[in-house]
Amino acid sequence: MKTLLLLVYMLAATRGAIAQNTQQDTQCVLERAAMVETIRAYARSYADVLGQQGLSERVLAAMGQTQRHLFVPGRSCSVAYADGPLPIGLGQTISQPFIVTLMTELADVAPDDVVLEVGTGSGYQAAVLAHLARKVCTIEIIPQLAEAAAKTLKDLSYDNVSVRLGDGYVGWPECGPFDAIVVTAALGQVPPPLIEQLKVGGRLVMPVGPAYTIQTLTVVEKTGPGQTTTRAVGHVRFVPFTRSKD
Ligand code: SAH
Q: GO terms for molecular function, please (predicted)?
């Protein structure tokens, strides 16, 4: 009798937990859909940068498919899907979803592309890129963040993303050459090795400017071997690009 009661109790508890999870999942799906609409609306004020067509549906779909709440553990979905930056520990932040979308759009990623990200952080931007590219290589300088991001990406079956621990200033030649490079930490100038590893016709998107203040979101296009054009897109505020001591 006791065993039966325990079984009934366990079943009820499991069903309760499942119901609660389903409720949370539904809540997250709704919050994520709302975030995409906020981004779409916000993009209208960026018509000068994005053109009248605004953001591409392909990039918006990637934003709608990437579960940001799983990259910022311990946050409710209403916080995870608000259009703002969030701390991810060790003094680092995950960017505002609109900025992630804007940088992804400017990177102009095609389905067969190989993309480099410098500044893995939580792994969220890499996951967004993974929906759009054939292969994503991402470098993080802080060991704990590289490890945590690699685990999150693996748990979520992002099999086309490779995470490396190291200083992204030198890029990742063995993974390239790259069709697009996204740098998510601010530095005074674009690291020359990254331009070197960019294919002709490729694009690099990066906040250029001093640390702890406002930087210029910059798009560098490689127009030929040793040739580039540079475009300033707007003002952003990113965490600093740090260099390894060795
Ligand atoms: N793209 C991340 C957020 C980036 S925060 C996300 O989606 O969550 C910027 C990250 O760049 C931080 O994690 C910081 O540790 C890392 N970083 C700073 N300098 C770096 C460097 N030289 N090489 C690689 N990563 C660097």
A: protein-L-isoaspartate (D-aspartate) O-methyltransferase activity
